[in-house]
Structure formats: structure tokens, C-alpha cells
Amino acid sequence: MAQVRRRRPWIAAVLGFIFTGVGHIYLRRWLRGAAWFMAALASSFFVPEAAVEATTQAATTAFTNPQAAQSMTLPIKELLPIYAVITASIIDAYIIAKMNNQLVEEIEQGVRRCPSCAKKIDDSVNFCQWCGTDLDDDLTL
Ligand SMILES: [Zn+2]
Prior knowledge:
Layout: H1 9-18, H2 22-26, H3 30-43, H4 49-64, H5 66-70, H6 80-108, E1 112-113, E2 120-121
């Protein structure tokens, strides 16, 4: 827990929106980001092949011929499983960034937490008033 830095939740959300998992990479949560990417990939198995093809075609057209792409419609309903996973990953990245910043604030304010139960501990005691853990060895947290 040595290097905790403030991260902007909206940046994590926007990055996650652009590409699933990248918001988590910004938050240095590599494995979680990879897991969300795999989840988004896996969710595409629940989408009918025709819908995947239509989407790929629409995306390609958007790059090559933007005007023609405007008249194309995406199979929104069929793509819902993917949207659901992507939305969840964006919310997850946002919440992690928020929690991360809360932790940074606590460290800046010198808040001590019990290593065994994670509850806030009073500065003047050397044991956890919640679970009784002896904190003598953990003062250099
Ligand atoms: Zn405790």
C-alpha cells in the first residue's frame, strides 16, 4: 500500500468507455482490467452472430464512409449483453477510483486502520478498540 496516488474517477470512466478495461489500467488494476476485457469478450458469445456481423460492418462503414453509416442501424437489443458488461465495468472503474481517492485522503489525514479488521483506530491507542488486535508491530504502517 506504499504508492497510492489520487486518480480522477471520470478519467477512469471515460477510458473504460473508449475501451473496456483501460479505465482499470489507468487505476493500476491490471488484472481487474484484463478480467473486464475478458468478460466483455465473453459477453459477445451471447450475441447472435448476425448482430456481431452487422455491428462490425457498421463500424467499418463508419470509418470508410461516414455518410453511409448514418443510415445504418445497430441491432441494439441483440447487443445488450455487451452493453451491460461494458456499463458495469465503467461503473466499477469509477467506484474503484473513488475508493482509491478516499484512501489517499485518509493517508494524508493520518488515519490509522486496523490491519486485521480494517476499522479506523484512534491515534492514542496501540490496540484495535474494535477487535482487540495488538498494534505494536504495525505502527510503521
Ligand atoms: Zn481491528
